[in-house]
Amino acid sequence: MRNWIRQDEADRGERDDRPTTEMIAENRRLRAENKELRRVNEVLRAASAYFAQEIGPTRRLS
What we know:
mainly alpha; Homeodomain-like_sf; IS3 IS1372-like family transposase; 2 helices
């Protein structure tokens, strides 16, 4: 119960020692987005390596 009261006080701007509920939700959303972007980045990195290997070394035209 004490935590609920403290959280309500933080949400109303009466406390600075804890994040607001809105900030907590935003942090969760950003963590989930970060996780998804890392996953996508890993897939793209693997695809890039696969296609680079399939193409082989490129020759420079002089």
